[in-house]
Specification:
The chain is mainly β and 242 residues long. It has a domain of 128 residues: Jelly Rolls, CATH 2.60.120. It has 1 helix and 10 strands; from the N terminus they run H-E-E-E-E-E-E-E-E-E-E. Strands 1, 2, 3, 4, 5, 6, 7, 8, 9 and 10 form a 10-stranded antiparallel β-sheet that branches. The model has no long low-confidence stretch (mean pLDDT 83).
C-alpha cells in the first residue's frame, strides 16, 4: 500500500507541475479553472429570459443636417391636358400714330350739261352749252361731244323736253348710233323723252346726241322753266390700263 500511495503522490506532483506550465503559456486563463482543459465540467442549461425594460422617453430633436448632393435630372414627363383659358388681360397702351400713307388715286370723268337753243339742227351733234358739271373738261361745248380720256365703263343718260313737234334722237358712239328714242308730240302739251345706256369706251372714243331722220323731228325744247339735259360719268376704269 505504501508503495502504491507513493506512486499516486508522484503522479499528482507531475500533473500539477504540468498544469502550472500550461497556465503560464495562456494569455487569459479562465479564472478558478487552472485545469479546465483537463477536467472540464458538463455545460449548464441556458438561463430564463429576463424581464423587458421600460419604455424610454424621446430624446431631444437633433440639429438640421447638411443638404445632400443634387440628384441627376429626371426624364421629361408626358404633356398634360390643355388648361382652361385665363381671364382677359387689361387693354394695352395706345401705340404711336403711324405715318400718313399715300392717297389712292381715284379716276374721275363726268359731265352734266343742258340745252340753251330751242331747236337744234338735225343730223349733227347737239351742242349742250349750259354747264352743270364739267370739272375734268371731257365734254367739249364747242362740238357737243364727250371725249373719253380714261378707258373704262361709262353711264350715259338724257332727258329731253318735247314741244311743238315730234322728236327723234339717238346716242352716237364713234359715228355709229347706239340707241334711238322717238316721242310723238301732242298738241297743247309738253312731253318728255329720255334714254340711258352703259358703254365701254377706249381712250379717244367720242359720244354725243343727234337728231336723226328727215322731216320736222327736232322738237327738243328748253326755256327758263324747262330743261333738256345730257350727262355721263365713269363707273370704273379698265384695270389693265391703270
Amino acid at each position: 500500500m505504501r508503495g502504491t500511495a507513493g506512486f499516486f503522490l508522484c503522479l499528482l506532483l507531475l500533473v500539477a507541475s504540468h498544469c502550472t506550465e500550461v497556465a503560464a503559456q495562456n494569455d487569459q486563463p479562465e479564472p478558478k479553472t487552472p485545469c479546465a482543459n483537463w477536467m472540464g465540467g458538463v455545460p449548464g442549461y441556458p438561463g430564463h429570459n429576463g424581464l423587458p425594460g421600460r419604455d424610454g422617453k424621446d430624446g431631444l430633436k437633433g440639429e438640421k443636417g447638411d443638404p445632400g448632393m443634387e440628384g441627376s435630372k429626371g426624364e421629361q414627363g408626358e404633356t398634360g391636358p390643355r388648361g382652361w383659358p385665363g381671364p382677359a388681360g387689361p387693354p394695352g397702351f395706345s401705340g404711336q400714330k403711324g405715318s400718313k400713307g399715300e392717297d389712292a388715286f381715284v379716276h374721275r370723268s363726268a359731265f352734266s350739261v343742258g340745252l340753251t337753243d330751242r331747236s337744234p339742227h338735225p343730223n349733227v351733234p347737239i351742242r349742250f352749252s349750259k354747264i352743270f358739271y364739267n370739272e375734268q373738261r371731257h365734254y367739249d361745248t364747242s362740238t357737243g361731244k364727250f371725249i373719253c380720256s380714261i378707258p373704262g365703263t361709262y353711264y350715259f343718260a338724257y332727258h329731253l323736253t318735247v314741244y311743238l313737234s315730234d322728236v327723234k334722237v339717238s346716242l352716237y358712239k364713234k359715228d355709229k348710233a347706239v340707241i334711238f328714242t322717238y316721242d310723238q308730240f301732242q298738241n297743247n302739251n309738253v312731253d318728255q323723252a329720255s334714254g340711258s345706256v352703259l358703254l365701254h369706251l377706249s381712250s379717244g372714243d367720242e359720244v354725243w346726241l343727234q337728231v336723226y331722220g328727215d322731216g320736222d323731228n327736232n322738237g327738243i325744247y328748253a326755256d327758263n322753266v324747262n330743261d333738256s339735259t345730257f350727262m355721263g360719268f365713269l363707273l370704273y376704269p379698265d384695270l389693265d390700263a391703270h
